[in-house]
Amino acid sequence: MTITADHGRTHGYDDLPGLMGLMTGDEKHGPAATSTLDVLWVLYDRVLRVTPRRRDDPARDRFLLSKGHGPMAYYAVLAAKGFVPVDWLPGFGAYDSPLGHHPDRVLVPGAEIASGSLGHGLPIAVGTALGLRAQGLRDPAVWVLIGDAELDEGSNHEAIAFAGPAGLERLHTIVVDNSSASHARPGGIAARFEAAGWSAVTVDGRDHEALYDAFTAPHPGRPHVVVARVEPKTA
Description:
The protein is an alpha/beta fold. The chain is built from 8 helices and 7 strands; from the N terminus they run ββαααβααβαβαβαβ. The protein has a domain at 31-68 and 111-229: Thiamin diphosphate (ThDP)-binding fold, Pyr/PP domains (Rossmann fold, 3-Layer(aba) Sandwich). Strand 6 (199-204), helix 8 and strand 7 (224-229) form a beta-alpha-beta unit. The two termini are 33 Å apart. Residues 1-8 have low confidence and may be disordered. Residues 29-217 form the Transketolase N-terminal domain.
């Protein structure tokens, strides 16, 4: 599935390395970016109900990038899907570019939050899901992408502990696991969520069909987490 982006060109998954290659300069955090590439593509290509024309629609799905210190893959996917012009990509990280080393929701069309401190994305997602429910908007899904190292932060565990008993079934978390957490127990990510009442699935973070099946698995009455395992971080 592809979508027409700027200048009438169609961009698909195979175009993403080229789009990422347009972004040069310092502080690229390449491993952090590439670890999320497949997850982001499957979400935006097959799952999320949001388009450039619907990015302000109250009924849209919300995607929150908490793992924001390596946003090259995110920007490439947003460009492929027509949220931002491809012409912006070569200026990545420049002082006058809207594409900073962390996404800014005021500057980047389609970005729901400005990322920064590790550990804040999941609590914001919990608040977003609660807010939508309080407004009677039961249909929009909330998705948040975090890294396994973010689970070193206590704020995430408070959010996990709250969301399960609150029955936030429109809340979805993706944990990209590249074995970079300092205090992790091998195989323990899904178990931590399950202990708090979440639905949990662990998959190969490079397998698009496995990701899609995990993202769309039913989980009535419970929030859902997908642990996407990728190759260990080496740099």
